[in-house]
Design goal:
The protein contains eight helices and six strands, in the order ββαβαβαβααααβα. It is an alpha/beta fold. It starts with a strand and ends in a 7-residue tail after the last helix.
């Protein structure tokens, strides 16, 4: 497994991260959608170094699998990166049918400083939805046709990871407004914790985002 930072071409200038930049490591279960989305924020501001893990082959993309990847990559005998005070590690996962694996990782993260989970219920498309709409999702419609199709239905032309992540401020505000958690701390249907990661990113790159 390798952690890579692939820089997508932008119509605006990017700034190389400085050595002292805060590192934010993101381990997400999607092999394409989530990776493309978070890769948008790589090298947007010199104060933050966003490092996005890209899944390879048949790697275990369950919450426990992602957690183990992070541990192996950052805390193993030969870590790929040096994790310093203030750096953050994020496990970004869907709810799907992971069940107890989500609770297991949440429990493990309680004993790790600056390690966090961002769970979307039911899937990452819930987060994408809030980039455009401030109303709570039509859950009946989303369940009827599936979240991926529902997002394509409500977002003209579908979500485009080469430009729409610039709507991060709107997505963060909308998702935070509608966030609900159950007694175990897990996201309720139609909710997503990715807004927490969004707040972290915005604290560094908010001024570097292009206007709408």
């Amino acid at each position: 497994m390798s952690l890579s930072q692939i820089i997508s071409r932008r119509s605006f200038e990017r700034k190389q991260p400085v050595r002292e930049a805060t590192k934010v490591f993101i381990f997400s279960e999607g092999k394409r959608r989530e990776y493309d989305y978070f890769n948008y924020f790589v090298e947007l501001d010199s104060r933050i170094n966003v490092i996005v893990n890209q899944l390879e082959g048949e790697e275990d993309n369950s919450p426990t699998g992602l957690y183990q990847m992070a541990c192996d990559s950052l805390c193993g005998e030969e870590p790929e990166y040096e994790v310093l005070e203030g750096d953050q590690i994020w496990i970004v996962c869907d709810t799907d049918t992971w069940g107890d694996k989500i609770v297991e990782v949440r429990t493990a993260l309680k004993n790790k400083k600056d390690w966090y989970m961002a769970q979307s219920n039911l899937c990452f498309e819930v987060w994408l939805y809030y980039h455009f709409l401030s109303d709570f999702p039509d859950m009946e419609r989303a369940e009827q046709i599936g979240w991926k199709q529902y997002v394509n239905e409500v977002i003209p032309g579908g979500f485009n990871s080469t430009k729409h992540p610039s709507l991060l401020p709107k997505a963060t505000a909308n998702a935070k407004l509608h966030f609900r958690a159950d007694v175990s701390g897990c996201s309720m249907p139609g909710s997503t914790e990715v807004y927490l990661l969004g707040e972290v990113l915005l604290s560094y790159i908010g001024e570097s985002l292009p206007g709408e």
